[in-house]
Design goal:
This protein is an all-alpha fold and 144 residues long. The protein has helices at residues 2-6, 13-20, 26-29, 57-68, 79-92, 96-101, 111-124, 126-143.
Length: 144
C-alpha cells in the first residue's frame, strides 16, 4: 500500500522504484562478486557506481517499520479436530487403545497419534481443556 500511494503513473517503473529507494533488478542492486580462480581477488567492489538520489525515503522507512512489527500468533486448531479430541476424551478417558478402536476414528490413528492430538489440544487451549475435564467430572458425580 505504501508503494501504491507513492506511485507516479507518469513515470516508468524503474524511475518510480528508484525514487523510492527500491531496486528494479535485485541482481544489479546486490551484485555477486566475481572471484579469480587463482588469487581469489575481487575484480570490482561495486561501490564505484554512482549513488542514486532517493526522493521518497518514507516508503522504505514505512515498509521497514511494518516488517519489524512482531507477528501475531494465530495458532488454532480445526473445529473437526477439537470435536474429535473432545469426543474421544468424553467416551474413553485416558484409554488410547480403546480410542484407536473407536468407530469415529476415521483416519485410523494409532494410540500414539491420538495421544499426540490430545496433547496438541491441551497446549493450544489449556483453559478450555481444564473446563472440559471439570465438566466431565461434574457429569460423573451427577450420574452417581
Amino acid at each position: 500500500s505504501h508503494i501504491r500511494h507513492a506511485w507516479d503513473p507518469t513515470k516508468s517503473v524503474a524511475q518510480n522504484l528508484a525514487e523510492m529507494g527500491l531496486a528494479e533488478d535485485p541482481n544489479k542492486a546486490v551484485p555477486i562478486p566475481r572471484k579469480r580462480l587463482l588469487g581469489m581477488e575481487m575484480e570490482g567492489d561495486g561501490l564505484e557506481q554512482g549513488k542514486k538520489i532517493v526522493r521518497k525515503p518514507y516508503v522504505v522507512n514505512e515498509m521497514e517499520y511494518e516488517a519489524n512489527l512482531p507477528e501475531k500468533k494465530s495458532n488454532t486448531l480445526s473445529r473437526d479436530l477439537i470435536d474429535y479430541v473432545r469426543y474421544m476424551i468424553q467416551n474413553h478417558g485416558e484409554n488410547y487403545k480403546e480410542m484407536a478402536r473407536d468407530e469415529k476414528n476415521y483416519y485410523q490413528d494409532t494410540p500414539k497419534q491420538i495421544k499426540r492430538k490430545i496433547n496438541v489440544y491441551k497446549n493450544f487451549y489449556p483453559e478450555e481443556y481444564k473446563e472440559f475435564i471439570a465438566s466431565l467430572k461434574q457429569e460423573k458425580m451427577d450420574v452417581q
